[in-house]
């Protein structure tokens, strides 16, 4: 029973865990609101937010959805912004609140962003690997962000325990920005998958949770759970680079050499992050996840 | 052994009934029930069915280690749903009996 975090086997596990979460939240909503309860939405992940304001907002949002991950229409994003910052009073984007905001007018400010996001998703899907299946199973929406000082393009991105399935992303500005965006989506997917695992069992024993260890993403000491998340995000990025290098038809040689260089750098960051994890006490799930990560490494 | 065969027959029936439901995404599982009790029952059976279909594959080849892995996964599902998934638990126990090596085999 390999595959706790990578591979097709892990997709089946995660689909099962998400199914359990969705069913549980549906049950709670039905107990509260009967037949008036809406279908599942990321805002019900933690089930902290379910008053009538939230419900009304969710219903308006769901009425506009077409099943796509990418809905950048201004009216829709204004509703999303209202839900996450007013109706639910999530304090979204705290602690990111000081730096990010939902990019509600992205279609008028950066009209090419939607095409770039579609191309990034197409790149992930064209590789035909398990990552594409995992994204389909886990992701509910991709929400565009503005930069810290209102920049139209930024390298921001985050996921939140209270909003499982919602991926928040800035739009990159470099020459290989579509590739970078695809990798950023997969990075967030790693966080999403680990958060679903955490809903079932923490990967770390209680005593290790806040222990400060090196993080391969921020390259500084962070609480162990954050460093563990970094390892998973880097693993997902590594796997995406591998899929690209093995199966993707690059537009030009520079695109391919960019991916090769990024893979080498990312792999090195992952190895550094993994070393740090050796210093924390893992649960049964944590042990299996790390064993899975190690099995993906090149010899 | 007879119990296991009876159990597997039931499992095949479940497999046929739930293949279509699994074709959709997790968000799209229908909830046609009209009472809170029905919803509790439906949500439990839905997760149980998914667990059984998932863990059914390669059952004959399961090692003791794999059984432990299923136990962990079931614990996680129980944690997420809060209420114990007793039917799934029973199934796992059946498999434990079915697969665990005898003293002689050890």
Structure description:
The complex is a heterodimer of chains A (299) and B (106). Chain A is an alpha+beta fold and 299 residues long. Chain A is 56% helix and 7% strand. Chain A starts with 6 loop residues before the first helix and ends with a helix. Chain B is mainly α. Chain B is built from 4 helices and no strands. In chain B, helix 3 runs antiparallel to helix 4 (86-99). The longest helix of chain B has 22 residues, at 2-23. Chain B is globular and about 30 Å long. The two termini of chain B are 20 Å apart. The A-B interface holds A 1, 12-13, 15-24, 26-27, 30-31, 35, 39-40, 136-137, 140, 197, 199-201, 284-285, 288 and B 25-27, 29, 31, 33-34, 36, 39-40, 42-44, 46-47, 50-51, 54, 65-66, 69-70, 72-73, 75-77, 79-82.
Observed structural traits:
heterodimer, A: 299 residues, 4-stranded mixed β-sheet, two-stranded antiparallel sheet, B: 106 residues, mainly alpha, 71% helix, 0% strand, disordered N terminus
Concise synopsis of the structure shown:
Chain A is of the alpha+beta class and 299 residues long. Chain A has helices at residues 7-33, 52-64, 74-87, 106-109, 113-126, 130-138, 177-200, 224-247, 253-277, 284-296, and strands at residues 101-102, 141-146, 157-158, 166-169, 212-214, 221-223.
Beta-strand residue fraction of chain B: under 5%
Q: Return the structural class of chain A.
A: alpha+beta
- Main β-sheet of chain A, in a few words? 4 strands, mixed
> How many beta-strand elements of chain A?
6
**Gap between N and C termini of chain A:** 22 Å
Spans of at least 5 consecutive residues with low confidence of chain A: none
Number of helices of chain A: 10
**Helix share bin of chain B:** over 70%
